[in-house]
Amino acid sequence: MRFRIVFLGTPDFAVPSLRALIDGPDEVVGVVCQADRPAGRGQKVRMPPVKVVAAEHAVPVEQPTKIRNRAFEDLLREWNPDIIVVAAYGRILPTNILELPRHGCINVHASVLPKYRGAAPIQWAIARGERETGVTIMQMNEAMDEGDVLLQRATPIGPNETAAQLSERLAQLGAESLIDALGALDRGELVATPQDDAAMTLAPMIAKADGEIDWGMDADEIAWRSRGFHPWPSVYTHLAGKLLKIHRAQARTASTDATPGTVANTGDTIEVATGKGLLAIEELQLEGRKRLSAAEFSRSGSLSVGTRLGRPAK
Predict the structure, then answer these.
(1) Which of 26, 116, 257, 314 lies at a C-alpha separation of 20 to 30 Å from 74?
(2) Residue 76 and residue 197: Cα distance in Å, rounded?
(3) Are residues 158 and 228 part of one domain?
(4) Considering 199, 225, 247, which residue would you say is the last residue of a domain?
(5) What pTM does this model have?
(6) Is residue 313 part of a domain?
(7) Helix (H, G, I), strand (E, B) or coil at 206
(8) Distance CA 86, CA 105 (A)
C-alpha cells in the first residue's frame, strides 16, 4: 500500500476513477458522495453511482448534508487519509479539509485547464466548437479550478461526439491519468505548475434556457450546441406554440435569403435558415410526441417550407 485515500465524488463521471483506485495499489478508506435523490420517470430514490460502487467493495460511505462543520472534519481525521481525491463531487472544499491530508487534495477535472473552469467543462467545450479537450489532475485550493496543474492529458473531440459520449471517454482518461499522477507522487516525480490565469475560460453550470435556439446564430454554433447539450437540456425551439426538441443536426454552408428560423427545405433532412448557413435537422421531437427522423416528421405534415420556428410573437 502506498497511500490511504478518501474519495469524494457522486455521478457516473467519477466511477472509473473510484474503480481504478479500488483496483490499484492504494487503500480507499472512505467515500463521500451527495445524498440519494429521486431520478427517472418514476422519481424513485436512487443511490449515486459512486455509492453503488463503494457498496460493492464494502468501502465505508458518508453522505453529509454539510461539509463545513466539525463533524465532517472529525470523520475525515478518523479515516486519516494521506490524500483526498475528488472527481465531480459538486462542492467546494474549505481550507480545513484541503489542508487535512499530508498530500492535500487533488481533483480530476474534465478539461485542459485553465480552459473551461467550472461546473460544465465537457458541455461547453463542444458547444463552443472546440476540436480538442482533455483532463487535468489538479492540486486543489479554495478557488474554483484554480489550483496548480499536476498532470494533463489531451484528446480530440469527434466531429459528431455528444457531451454524453465525450463524458464517458474523459471519465476513463481521467481515471488513467489519476493513477499515473499517484504513481508519480509516490516516486517523488510529481511537479506542480501554476495555471496561466490570462488563458482562463469559464464553463458555468448549464441551465435549461441555454438550450433554446437563437436562430440568428450561425448554423455551426447551433449544431455544436445540439451535441454539447445532449442529453440535457438538448436544443429546442417552438412550433405552433409547442416545444420542439432537436436531437440531431448538422450545419450546412448553403446560403439562403430566408429569415432565420424559417424552414427552407423538407425531406430526408429539415433545413432551417440561420444567421449564417442552414441547420440540417436529422432527428426531432414535438412536445407530447415520440422522437422521429426528419423524413418521418416531414411526412407527418406538421411543418412545410416557409414555416417559422421559434417562440410566438407577443
Answers:
(1) 26
(2) 32
(3) no
(4) 199
(5) 0.95
(6) no
(7) coil
(8) 7
